[in-house]
Design goal:
19 helices; globular; mainly alpha; Proton glutamate symport protein; binds aspartic acid; about 450 residues
């Protein structure tokens, strides 16, 4: 059985067990099994994924920069990815607002008895400060706190410097190549635990999310999910076909493990190692593009989150009986695109961004309380859309740059080998030999 199949079984079993436990609602199960055991295993698994992100991005990106070898090409790849990320996010939210205006969720909503507690808003950062923050004052601090844009900036500068040094960087390049390979192996080890990790995360979420949370805001949920699916299955796949000519069905199959991880963790950032692995080993994107584009996309590209903001804004405008008008909608589009650049892909950040958007168009931030209950599940779905957008743009850019191996793309078995965790005894012996202290000759 392939690992993907096992992970999918883990996810399916998690949904079933979660729904059953939700109905049983026993204090013992909730405390010891769900919050206790499932919570612990799920947390360990997400932690293990996060543990890989920074070293993987650092070494794969250095290799990527050295692999491209030409600073101009690097600029071109970056520029294309950036433009496509902005474009897909803008399309996503524009379509979402269109759908939401058509369906008009929230009109006639009865606010009585709804507890609008204490949701406080967040000020939108200025565009200038978002860009200024890309340059770190302390690269170690940036790595320690996982500031992705700062890490990318620093690593690219180091990579360019290594290119400039030429021949004397050879050993450094080899060491980074080795470290990249090593980190990918560690990803393989963590992935082996994925079916259990995914099971626990999903079972916990579904136990905790009762169906009754969804009833009052069903119109919002249905509108949002339709808009997310439309973007995932139609817009992104049309873009992939139009810009790269590749078969979208094959693509969806290849990217599925990353989608399952995104769904289980609700974090684009934590999913970086899996998305990176899927696009390099299964889709066939060269490391020189993927090493930059995937972490970059996980940070600045959030199509699903933008869609949620569009739908939520229209929903709340209807609830409060406010007419936003064209100007209001355009503000929402601009704000959502900007907000997605400045914020990292971690669980729940979409809601924080929504407070900025609402503040900007003058809607009461407390309205968020209405959709808070359903946000976790919505977060899981929009994160799937977010990372699929990253993978689509990365693939389009790679195809355009001649950095996509179509033989890998067309091979359904690429990147699904199962012998990853085996240690070759001969290799083990050779290493033990090499590690012995050698008397100087
Ligand atoms: N969880 C999303 C992500 O990581 C962001 C969000 O919409 O809250 O991409």
């Amino acid at each position: 059985m392939s690992l993907t199949t096992k992970i999918m079984i883990g996810m399916g079993a998690g949904i079933v067990v979660g729904l059953i436990f939700n109905q049983i609602d026993s204090a013992f199960i909730n405390t010891h099994i769900v919050a206790g055991l499932f919570g612990m295993v799920g947390k360990m698994f997400v932690n293990a994924l996060k543990m890989l992100v920074v070293p993987l991005v650092v070494f794969s990106l250095i290799c990527g920069v050295l692999g491209i070898g030409d600073i101009r090409i690097l600029g071109r790849v970056g520029g294309k990815a950036f433009a496509l990320y902005l474009m897909t996010t803008a399309i996503a939210i524009a379509v979402a607002i269109g759908i939401a205006v058509l369906i008009a969720p929230g009109s006639g909503f009865n606010m009585e008895g709804v507890d609008v507690g204490s949701v406080s808003g967040k000020e939108a950062p200025s565009v200038w400060s978002v860009f200024a923050a890309i340059v770190p004052t302390n690269p170690i601090a940036a790595m320690a706190s996982g500031e992705m844009l700062q890490i990318i900036f620093y690593v690219i500068v180091v990579g360019i410097a290594a290119l400039m040094l030429g021949e004397s960087s050879k050993k450094f390049a080899e060491a980074c190549e080795y470290m990249n390979e090593l980190m990918m192996k560690v990803v393989g080890i963590v992935m082996a635990a994925a079916p259990y990790g995914v099971f626990c995360l999903i079972a916990k979420t579904f136990t905790e999310q009762g169906i009754e949370l969804f009833v009052p805001v069903l119109a919002y949920v249905l509108t949002l999910v339709s808009a997310l699916f439309l973007h995932l299955f139609v817009t992104l796949m049309l873009l992939l076909k139009a810009f790269s000519g590749l078969n979208p069905l094959t693509f969806m199959k290849k990217i599925r493990p990353a989608q399952i991880f995104a769904f289980s963790t609700a974090s684009s950032n934590a999913t970086i190692p899996v998305t990176y692995r899927c696009v390099t080993e299964r889709v066939g994107v060269n490391n020189s593009v993927a090493s930059f584009s995937i972490p970059f996309g996980a940070t600045i590209n959030m199509d699903g989150t933008a869609i949620m903001q569009g739908v939520a804004t229209v929903f709340l405008a209807n609830v409060y009986g406010v007419d936003l008008g064209l100007g209001g909608y355009l503000t929402v589009i601009g704000m959502a695109v900007l907000a997605s650049i400045g914020t990292a892909g971690v669980p729940g950040v979409g809601l924080v961004m929504l407070t900025m958007v609402l503040g900007q168009v003058g809607l009461p931030v407390e309205g968020i309380a209405l959709i808070l209950g359903v946000d976790r599940l919505m977060d899981m779905i929009r994160t799937v859309v977010n990372i699929t957008g990253d993978a689509v743009v990365t693939t389009i850019v790679a195809k355009g740059e001649g950095q996509l191996d179509t033989a890998v793309y067309d091979n359904p078995d690429a990147g699904t080998t199962e012998d990853e965790l085996e240690i070759d005894p001969a290799a083990e012996e050779a290493l033990a030999e090499a590690a012995k202290p050698h008397p100087h000759a």
